[in-house]
Please model this.
Amino acid sequence: MEKNGVWPVLVFATADQRVSRQIQRARQAGQLRELLPRVHTSDLTTPPADLVRRHWFQLLGHLYPQAIISHRSGLDAQPTSAGDIFLTYKYGKKVALPGLTVHLLPGPGPQPDDRPFGEIPLYFASEARAVLENLQPARTRSGSSKTLLLTEVEEFLERVLRVRGEEGLNELRDKARALADTLGWAAELARLNQLVAALLATAPSKLLTSPVAQARALGLPYDPDRVALFGTLLTALRHTTWPNRPDQAPQPPGYYNLAFFEAYFSNFIEGTVFEVDEAHAMVTGNQPVPGRHADSHDVLSTYHLVSNPAEMSLVPATATELLALLQRRHATLLGERPDKRPGQWKERANQAGNTSFVEPELVRGTLHQGFNLYHALEHPLARAMMLLFIVSEVHPFDDGNGRLARIMMNAELVRGGLSRIIITTHYRQDYLRALRRLSRQRDPGLYLRMLDRAQAFTAALKATSYADLKGQLSASNAFEEGREEVAW
Model:
């Protein structure tokens, strides 16, 4: 109750007559207002619906002690966007509160694995209980259903398998089996057993309806959050009209001059640093710099890929071709670094800064899903932007992912007869910042503008000779590093 003249946000009615009189005086003094019958609040300005949604667990614990947050709410752990919350209680009823509709469902009380909500007399259904409850038959009344869609239950089980492995999924099933025996939920357990068996590929995948779960059963599990992010980028790409900037150097020697600087800057960005004339002499002589065998071959192998018109005209027509092309180009790119396992998918998770990339077991499936979105694009620049981000975000190999992503991007542009994109040293920070914003904030705007500007810059270069091109790049400060460090 009142402490030092200050009332808590929620004040509940009590049988204590002294406290009741205090509440009455506080109401008369304008210190409290009624929020619900027998519930008052010291917040005099926030709309009641917002207060109820903000403090729903405290309110429900007071109104329905020993209730269990169950069924779809047990897995969602919050009210639906429409304000529906489902509780298992000692009787059934539908109660409308400001901003919240409480669906009371008659059923068994708290079980040993149901989790109490701190000191509040309210419980969260255990995972096993909530899964079984969501496999019960349900009818939708007034736009609300007590259960999630079957696809959503499948996606929850797939997420358990993805995060905790087969052992974790089987542990969940074992707990559900024990609970089903206690509560008499044999039909729900049978349905759960079917779904788990399909996910573990010991039953037909046709039993599953969720694309994520089906992909798992077929041996191509993928990262659904990354695929949703690719979908965000696809929408932005399709909503934009892209210019046609013709390739200004489609034939030698301009083609080779531009390819050199593409290879040079792509490696410089990744920390393979040479003086530009030193690197050019190495490329034209096809000889590594003494004492720097591996670094030299990083530049040489990149140049051999991007300076080959036939190679740079290859783009994938199927998801299988995409995976094969990535592996072959990576094997060439890091051929002189056997410790980096050239051409082999990563076996350990990788990250840069605070960004963790796609888990190893999800690489192939995520690339398959990404290809479907890439294939829905027509303009070469849009396809290039999509493929660059897919490879960057999946990070399918131990090393060399950034260089490979830029090679895949420029192959799309060369194939389409458009100017390639060179990310200069000076532009590195803008490039990484745009990737990071799209990856972390799901905002593609900066990414699209950054690559559009980079292509416009590259298209304006005259590649008649190495010296001329170097002079243009020097005049634009392309070789200068920015002052601000950017963590991917």
Remarks:
- Confidence is low (pLDDT under 50) at residues 484-488.
- Residues 150-217 form one domain.
- The CA atoms of residues 17 and 23 lie 10 Å apart.
- The longest strand covers residues 100-106.
